[in-house]
Design goal:
With about 230 residues, the protein is an alpha/beta fold. It has a single domain, classed as Rossmann fold (3-Layer(aba) Sandwich), CATH 3.40.50. The strands form two sheets. Strands 2-1-3-4 form a four-stranded parallel beta sheet. A two-stranded antiparallel sheet has the order 5-6. Strand 1, helix 2 and strand 2 form a beta-alpha-beta unit. The longest helix has 18 residues.
Amino acid sequence: MRELFIERMSWPEIQAALQEGMTTAVVCAASTEQHGPHLPEATDALLGAAYAEGLARRLGNALVPPVIRPACSEHHMGFAGSLTIPPDLLMDLLDHHLASLRRHGFVDFFVFSSHGGNYPVLQRWAAERPHPDTTVIWDFGVFQDAFDALRPFGREDTAGPHAEVIETSMMLRLHPDLVHMDRAEPGFEGEMDLPGLLAHGMRHCACPALHVRAPHAPERSARGTQAVPPSV
């Protein structure tokens, strides 16, 4: 299978790919942040890379630049190891990433985020710093296939995809060596108070009365979402 990740390719390989017409770049803004006691802090970056590769393979003329991280994760800073940057810095990083890629001959860009905290920043970036050659996705639509995959098992994800059945299932499929199900703890399940979360952090959503152990059946969950990355 052809290599699409720029950071795994040599410069002559990248140049040859560009000359062949692979002039679209799929850019993912991810994060370095806590994902519970059972998932690594690279979860968003690893899953984002899988989504980016899947889209690039479907397009047929695209390469995948390095995943951008860290990002806007202030609401995760109550947990050790999480990193965060200001929104303006993320927008600057996006500008400079695209500018560098353009200098090498890339002409079209798909930009998305695998971390929810970046969505409002991407929306603002698209409005304030528009790039005519760029398609920007700034919502949970990137996870829609994963949400749909839960329904045959009688599950709904109302709390949003973070270290729960969706992300755990994806990681079990893509990077099982990094998942420690023996360390999984009960987690929040309910309607997410997004304004409260962003204002006060992830710990704001903790409520013992609403805790459940998730995922209930990791093997079944992995089968349920295995068609999502890298064939998104």
